[in-house]
Amino acid sequence: MFPWAVIIYREERDFPENKLFYECGGSLIAPKFVLTVALCVHDKQQEHLVVRAGEWAAQSAQYSYQDRRVSQLFTHMGIMFRPLVNDLVLVYLSEPFQLADNVQPICFPPKGTHLDRYNCFTIGWGIVPSRGVPRYEANLSRVQVQVRPHDICQHLLPPMRPVQPFLCAGGFVGRDMCLGNLTGSPLVCPIPGSPHHYFQAGIVAWPNGCDDNSTPGIFLDLAYYRDWIERRLRQASH
Length: 238
Known about the structure:
The chain has 238 residues and is mostly beta strands. The protein folds into two domains: 5-105 and 226-237, Thrombin, subunit H; 118-223, Beta Barrel (Thrombin, subunit H). The chain is 9% helix and 41% strand. It has two helices and 16 strands. The protein has helices spanning 150-156, 222-236, and strands at residues 5-12, 19-30, 33-36, 49-53, 66-75, 80-81, 84-85, 89-93, 119-124, 127-130, 133-136, 141-148, 166-169, 186-191, 194-206, 217-221. The strands form four sheets. The chain has a six-stranded antiparallel beta barrel. Strand 14 (186-191) and strand 15 (194-206) form a beta hairpin. The radius of gyration is 17 Å and the shape is globular. The two termini are 32 Å apart. This is Peptidase S1 domain-containing protein. Pfam families: Trypsin (PF00089). It is found in: Secreted. Keywords: Disulfide bond, Glycoprotein, Immunity, Innate immunity, Secreted, Signal.
């Protein structure tokens, strides 16, 4: 189970009936707060965004998911798109999610956690190759990746890499699944000494392409942004 995984949909109201279109993934960090990348929502009308938690199969009525509207977006004030810097947004929901077995918040890593060569994973409804034609996963999938040392990342990444503090993970030919369109989804790692409990180490910012799994995926490093996130949580809660 991945009870902290959420989907951010864009609602289209131009059809005879409202329809939801997948925009990106995200993570539930408190009953009323979700983390994702700012690029996912920055050009969207806030009133058309829907956040869904507790769903295992995309747009299936079989699972007891919960939907919430967005009340406010707290985008990092230092965001830049060229080059990509501080691509982070805290989504404040109109009402809290009701916590249940399939809806739970994720915690942050213990301070001082060293992640080099740590075996972690990300989850979401990514793209997988199918006879040469990419397709979306129907069910929530887990992609295992290993965090790469920063100096190795510098050699493996393309010249147009982001300049924000980042982690990179994956990039082992023949061992990684395609990360596809998992943008905004969490990078989570097992808590030392408690392998069935997880903390969120990063957010998918720049997935590797389905045609090249030799390049690592790039993740926002949440250790760097933890103070900003916690300060925003306190401000929004008052």
